[in-house]
Amino acid sequence: MTSDRSIVSGDFELAMDELREVARYVLADAIDVLPMFEAAVPDDPRPCAAIEAAHRFAEGAARTKLQRVTALDAHRAARSAPSEIARLAARSAGDAASAAYLHPIADAAQVGHILRASATAAHLCELAGGGDPALADARLERSRRSATPLLIDVLSRYPTAAAGRSRIARLMRRLDDLLRADGRAAEGSSAVDPDAVAGR
Question: In sequence order, what DSSP letters do the residues of 144-172 get, joined into one string?
Answer without folding.
Answer: HHH--HHHHHHHTTSPPPP--SSHHHHHH
